[in-house]
Amino acid sequence: MLATVSRNVADYLARELNLGDESREIIQYAVKLVISSVAGLVAIGLVGLLLNVLKPTLAAALVAATIRSFSGGAHLSRPGLCVAAGAVVFPLLGLLAKFAAPLMEPPHLGDSAAVGIILSIYCLFRWAPADSPGKPIQTIVHRKKLKRLSLVFAVLVSLVSTLAWYGKYIDSTAFLAAVLGLLWQSLTLSPTGYLVAKGFDNLRLPGLKCRKKGGAKTKCGR
Fold first, then answer.
1. Residue range 13-17: average pLDDT?
2. Which one of 72, 80, 114, 134 has the fewest beta carbons within 10 angstroms of its own beta carbon?
3. What are the φ and ψ backbone dihedral angles of 206, each rounded to 5 degrees?
4. Which residues are within 8 A (CB) of 134 and not within 5 positions of it... i.e. 6 or more apart?
């Protein structure tokens, strides 16, 4: 369904704007990415709401999505499975933050967050950026730029979250959730992250079918 909708939209725009095949394929990829991203966010929000952890769930998801837009990460072969994986992972991070944060005194929470942030920056420094199947990195200059942006935004997110927590603008649960979102996204760049993605990819869930075009599976992109 996603492939059909994105293809129809791309065909219509290409026809109306008199665009070539290459531009049509770019539009189709962009439309597919937007639809899957919106569906993923809605699914994440609904599960977080049902579990009564909407705020920390969205905090983790938005931080992860921000960093992922520059760093890339492990990919799944089915858009529906991408949505399902996000709807599982981020509410779980929200639940973890909800129950773990009250058990930590501020100094211990700060120390734990610092460890998570340092580990995240290490992963980004070592493995970012990761190629996207639908949007490969073409040049060394672009690769260096994405690495630099990944690190800069990781540091900015960490500083803003920490200062907001110390200033009591956000609570401990939201702060821990933001750090967990950063850590999760950074770990998806590692070999272990790719193994986890492969495990998700091997799941056979009802209604989630692989779509092939030209012999290649449709991939979830950055």
1. 76
2. 114
3. -55, 135
4. 29, 33, 219, 221
